[in-house]
Amino acid sequence: MVQIAATRTTASPPINTRLLSLAALAAVIATLPLALTNNFHLDIAILAGFNAIVCVGLNLLIGYAGQISLGHAGFFGIGAYASGILVTTYGWPPIAALLAGAVSVGVLSFLLAKPILRLKGHYLAMATLGIGIIVSIVLRTETGLTGGPDGMMVDSFKIFGLELYGEKTWYWVVGVVLFIAVWLSLNLIDSPVGRALRAVHGSEVAAEVVGVDTARYKVMAFVVSAVFASVAGSLFAHYTGLITPAKADFFKSIELVTMVVFGGMASTFGAVIGAVLLTVLPQALTVFQDYSQIVLGAILMFTMVFMPKGLLPTIEGLIAQRRRA
């Protein structure tokens, strides 16, 4: 029964395919700077990388475990402010602050996941939305600690006395972290944990019948995805040098979910592609000026109507059909 349920979601790729995909990702990261002609283009690529790191983790929760979250920007914000406050206000080393933020988010998400993941459907969506709203309110109202609605300045990231400075340096940092995030995600998906998550997504009842601890694996996916968001938030804070509560609000959470769905749920590389396209596309649509948001919305509607599985899975399906033909 678990096998039947699991096959309803995207299966993990064979090892050789996974290695080829990772090699392709590494090649793209390594060669992309050759096509980026100025710091503005590098900045967009870096922001796309941050979004992709969060979406790779969020895809584990939504795409594989089948659990919705409308509050993941809150974990991104906690990671950003944890690094900002610990480094800038208390003089912590950036690496220690990043780890402290990730651990704090991991513990918090574990405590929250226990009760809220018992919910299903729109009840779960509302609960996760509530988490994000609470985090956003706290960041806006704790003026003495977070700077309030205006945000706070964050010191630069230093490691072994060396300061990470400039778009070119940060591009490689974000590229390496993204590659590690994708590698970890693919290995998790191809492990017994990943197979359990696909079984949970297919049918929780069937999974429980054969002894899968569904609650445990849902909590695990929630925690891992939250930690991914925290790490991305910490790095983002040091890169931009300024963080505001807007990065933890409801609209940011919706944007992250849209990226995962647009690229293709239960597809790690689909999540990356969705994050990259929906970060770059608004910049490309500025030529439409006041109509850019309308055009972006129309593109998303077209994709969801005609490619309900998401962009990458649909393309892969068309290629497979042509090969069979």
Automatic annotation (TrEMBL):
InterPro entries: ABC_transp_permease, LivM-like. The chain crosses the membrane at residues 19-36, 42-62, 69-89, 95-113, 122-139, 170-189, 219-239, 259-281, 293-312. It holds the Pfam family BPD_transp_2. Its main location: membrane. Keywords: Cell membrane, Membrane, Transmembrane, Transmembrane helix. The lineage of its organism: Bacteria, Pseudomonadati, Pseudomonadota, Alphaproteobacteria, Rhodospirillales. This is Branched-chain amino acid ABC transporter permease. It is found in: Cell membrane. It is a multi-pass membrane protein.
